[in-house]
Amino acid sequence: MTPPPNLWARATMVVRPRDLRDVYARPDLEVRRLAGHALRPVATGYWAIPPIERLDDPDWRPEVEALALGLAVADYGVKATALMAASAARFHGALPRALGTAVVAVPKQRPALDTAYGRIVFVKRQTDRLELTRARTPMVTGYVTTIEQTMLDIAHRPTLGDLATTEAAEAIRALALRADWTETLALAKEQRIPAAYVRARWVAENVVPEDTPILKPRTPVPGLHLWPADDEASFFGIQKS
Q1: Collapsed DSSP state (helix, strand, coil) of residue 200
Q2: What is the C-alpha radius of gyration for the chain, rounded to an integer number of angstroms?
């Protein structure tokens, strides 16, 4: 039951039977033969390839973020996909707790997928309009939203990917310490999500320098249940919710 060595030369370690047509005459049969060894079942139609040094390890499990990006790349390619929101925060080290749900940007509307290793939430986004950086994971090399983009995305939709609002606030503060706030403000204006900037700036008030730009909204901005360490909602134009 020796797997073909070129399995590990693929762009992504998530494979679909049709991806093996150039290797096998009957990829459906070979997938069944390799199931549980070289291929680990992920969800209907998807299989994960473990690292070659973990091939015989029954305890191997991919992290859900790497799996989500690998699966998205298998379906849509590298350039059209990116880890975002909570998953990007995990990649950037802003969320210490392992999550059971991953969030990935893809070019088409698609329902969430429950896999053997966690839930994948797909968000329809045009990646050429997002600020991205390269992401190297054990399963695929692709893209992830930048620190600034990630902070705005979380402030825009704090509970996306089943993230608790307390964790969302913590992630925003952790990202805020490393963010370029002038760039963040420009990005929020360009993407027409100024409310996300207002929320992020409010939540991060106690950790950012005093000269960090403040954007005063014309109308109250819903707080979306985010809570800063020092509450100055009225000063920032936040309407608590």
Answers
A1: helix
A2: 20
Distance of CA 40 to the CA centre of its chain: 22
Note the Cα 50 to chain centre separation in Å.
Answer: 21
The pairing of strands 101-106 and 118-124 is parallel
Q: Rounded CA gap, 117 and 171, in Å?
A: 23
Give residue 18's pLDDT. Answer: 85
Sheet-wide strand order for 40-43: 14-15, 46-48, 40-43
The set of residues, in sequence order, having a beta carbon less than 8 Å from that of 30 and lying 6+ positions away, is 20, 23, 24
What are the two backbone dihedrals, phi and then psi, of residue 16, each rounded to the nearest 5 degrees? -115, 150
Q: pLDDT for 81-137, tens place per residue?
A: 999 999 999 999 999 999 999 999 999 999 999 999 999 999 999 999 999 999 999
Give the pair of three-digit tokens for residue 97: 């707790």
- Report the amino acid identity of residue 168: A
**141 CB-near residues (< 8 Å, 6+ apart):** 11, 78, 134, 135
User: What tokens were used for 53?
Assistant: 């040094």
User: Which residues 6+ apart lie within 8 Å of 119 measured at CB?
Assistant: 64, 100, 101, 102, 112, 113, 162
Tell which residue, 25, 132, 115, has the closest CA to residue 80: 132
Q: Which residues are CB-contacts of 181 (< 8 A; sequence separation ≥ 6)?
A: 201, 208, 212, 213
Q: What whole-number distance in Å separates Cα of residue 187 and Cα of residue 184?
A: 5
Q: Is the pLDDT of residue 198 over 70?
A: yes
Instruction: Determine whether 210 is exposed, middle or buried from the number of CB atoms within 10 Å of its CB (0-12, 13-18, 19+).
Output: exposed
